[in-house]
Amino acid sequence: MLTIWGRLNSHNVKKVVWAAEELRLEYERIDVGGQFGMDADYLAKNPNALIPTIADGEVVLWESNTIVRYLMARYGGERWWPADPAKRAMVERWMDWQGDYANAQRDAFINLVRTPEAKRDQAATERSVAASAKKLAILDGFLAETPWLSGDEFVAGEER
Ligand SMILES: N[C@@H](CCC(=O)N[C@@H](CS)C(=O)NCC(=O)O)C(=O)O
């Protein structure tokens, strides 16, 4: 049984849960992080004090993209984990790109969503909006030419 630790309103937890759902894996998700805190048991599994973390039998893993890659490689077969390294890399680059995008949008998100109006940092928000817009223009340009980030299909491989 797969265990996923992390509160569901974290985008990094969502991507792991989404992967598990797409793969039709049975899993248990345990709320950790944010208002749920992290106890010593959790920190022993993930010393970064971040979510998500998974346990799949003896395999304990953190880093959301690494977890998604692991689940796809272990359970996904050709549809989700194509044997052709080039096919895989064309998809994986967007996973890694997403980390840069997350950095770009963070200040805007924190200020506009999580900070009371009176305490917002307007300059940081504007810088973040501008940096996000640059990244999103790249995404938009790609999706204007190609239906999915993985190419012609939702994933790179063949249909299940
Ligand atoms: N690079 C890490 C980043 C993880 C991360 O920043 N997680 C945030 C939530 S999205 C976190 O743990 N925040 C502290 C908390 O929720 O208590 C990953 O992709 O797993």
What is the number of domains? 2
Task: Summarize the amount of helix as a percent range.
Answer: 55-70%
Structural class: alpha+beta
In whole angstroms, the N-to-C terminal distance is 22 Å
Output the helix-strand order: EHEHEEHHHH
What's the total helix number? 6
Give the name of the CATH architecture of the largest domain: 3-Layer(aba) Sandwich
Written overview of the protein:
- Helix 1 (11-22) runs parallel beside helix 3 (64-75) and helix 5 (85-114) packs antiparallel against helix 6 (122-145).
- The chain has a four-stranded mixed β-sheet with strand order 2-1-3-4, with helices on one face.
- It has six helices and four strands.
- The protein is an alpha+beta fold and 160 residues long.
- Helix content is 55%, strand content 10%.
- It folds into two domains: 2-75, Glutaredoxin (3-Layer(aba) Sandwich); 82-145, Up-down Bundle (Glutathione S-transferase Yfyf (Class Pi), Chain A, domain 2), CATH 1.20.1050.10.
- A hairpin with a 2-residue loop joins strand 3 (53-56) and strand 4 (59-62).
- The chain is flat, with a radius of gyration of 18 Å.
- Glutathione is lined by residues 10-12, 33-34, 50-52, 63-65.
